[in-house]
């Protein structure tokens, strides 16, 4: 299949870690269309396991106006830091554990219709407690929830856990 190609890109706006671009793309037949793209630095998400339990993170999400139960996660916002190192750092910051083993599960394109965000999802085992270092207002008011992985997977299947990275991470970790 012939590929589309970007022939022009202009930044429309920038805010915090996001950039909004207007792109002109050329189709294989030569036709050109304008598309708006949210450029994201990427992120990591981690399924932290202790025996048959998973540690989840309940935090408020401003865009939807409520709290969600999620796996720990964070942006690739340190220049030059590899995703695995970011995963270790985020796990320590958010829930106060460092992994003895970290295994990559998958890369998740969250919303490829309008954003290039890619989340690298890991499973972390052989956890050792360290001092948590929450960084944002939501993290300071978050709650760590420990439950069986089976119960968390059941919640995802029933629609009680709806965060996409969490659903994918839990299902893949359960099938490993």
The unreliable regions are: none
What is the top-level CATH class of the largest domain? Alpha Beta
- How many structural domains? 2
CATH architecture of the largest domain: Alpha-Beta Complex
Q: Report the order of strands and helices.
A: EEEEEEEHEEHEHH
> CA-to-CA gap between the ends?
33 Å
> Per the principal axes of the C-alpha atoms, what is the gross shape?
elongated
- The CATH superfamily of the largest domain appears as Nucleoside Triphosphate Pyrophosphohydrolase
Q: What level of helicity do the residues show?
A: 10-25%
Structural class: alpha+beta
CATH topology of the largest domain: Nucleoside Triphosphate Pyrophosphohydrolase
């Amino acid at each position: 299949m012939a590929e589309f190609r970007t022939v022009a890109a202009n930044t429309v706006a920038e805010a915090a870690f996001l950039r909004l671009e207007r792109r002109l793309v050329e189709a294989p037949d030569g036709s050109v269309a304008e598309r708006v793209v949210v450029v994201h630095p990427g992120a990591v998400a981690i399924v932290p396991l202790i025996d048959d339990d998973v540690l989840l993170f309940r935090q408020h999400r401003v865009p939807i106006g409520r709290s969600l139960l999620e796996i720990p996660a964070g942006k690739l916002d340190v220049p030059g830091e590899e995703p695995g190192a970011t995963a270790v750092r985020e796990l320590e910051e958010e829930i106060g554990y460092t992994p003895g083993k970290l295994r990559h599960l998958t890369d998740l394109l969250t919303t490829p219709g309008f954003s290039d965000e890619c989340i690298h999802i890991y499973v972390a085992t052989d956890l050792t407690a360290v001092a948590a270092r929450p960084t944002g207002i939501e993290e300071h008011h978050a709650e760590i929830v420990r439950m069986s992985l089976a119960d968390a997977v059941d919640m995802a299947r029933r629609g009680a856990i709806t965060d996409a990275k969490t659903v994918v991470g839990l299902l893949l970790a359960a099938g490993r």
